[in-house]
Write a structure and sequence with these properties.
With 179 residues, the chain is an alpha+beta fold. The protein contains 6 helices and 8 strands; from the N terminus they run ββαααβββαβαββα. Helix 1 packs across helix 3.
């Protein structure tokens, strides 16, 4: 599977992608909104292995794709849409980027492509996501995508010695088509 945008390829993961992923997942900027304090080669290999396993599922319900620059092929993150079952009409999305590529429009571009796939090819009615409330840049991206803030879960996650709030966002197929 390959989704193409002006600057990006969203493609299936291959085993060798773990090295590029490890390089960005070890950066302090990346780690700040995750419960991880560090990432090991083994953990990231297992993470990529999970995506490889999802590619083989029949029926396939999880589409986590590598985000790579169109010009060089460099992996800069991953983006996905994930259903709970083959009959589901709702799914969540997730996206992460190498901090070196933040604030350049890549997150919005990748997320638009995966949302388009969800609505146009998976026939979804609703796409939702959650974001750490302190990650205001992620919230801005979600709003750019036309997602609406549905709620705030107060202090629902504990890690790194403190409680964190989570923001819930969603968009309906009718809103996506009208946007």
């Amino acid at each position: 599977m390959l989704l193409t945008t002006d600057r990006l390829h969203l493609r299936e993961f291959v085993e060798e992608d773990w090295q590029a992923m490890l390089a960005y997942q070890q950066k302090p900027e990346y780690l700040q909104f995750y419960d991880w304090t560090e990432r090991s080669a083994g953990e990231v290999r297992e993470f990529v292995g999970m995506f490889l396993d999802q590619q083989q599922a029949d029926p396939r319900i999880k589409y986590q794709l590598a985000v790579a620059l169109k010009t060089t092929g460099q992996l800069i993150g991953n983006c996905g849409v994930r259903l709970e079952s083959a009959a589901a009409r709702e799914a969540d999305i997730g996206l992460e980027l190498d901090p070196s590529y933040w604030s350049q429009g890549y997150a919005t571009e990748a997320a638009q492509a995966i949302m388009r796939f969800g609505f146009d090819h998976l026939n979804l009615h609703r796409i939702w996501t959650r974001s750490n409330a302190d990650n205001q840049a992620a919230g801005r991206v979600l709003e750019k995508l036309g997602m609406q803030l549905e709620g705030r879960l107060r202090q629902n996650e504990y890690y790194k010695g403190r409680w964190w709030d989570t923001m819930l966002y969603a968009i309906l197929d009718t809103e996506w088509k009208a946007g």
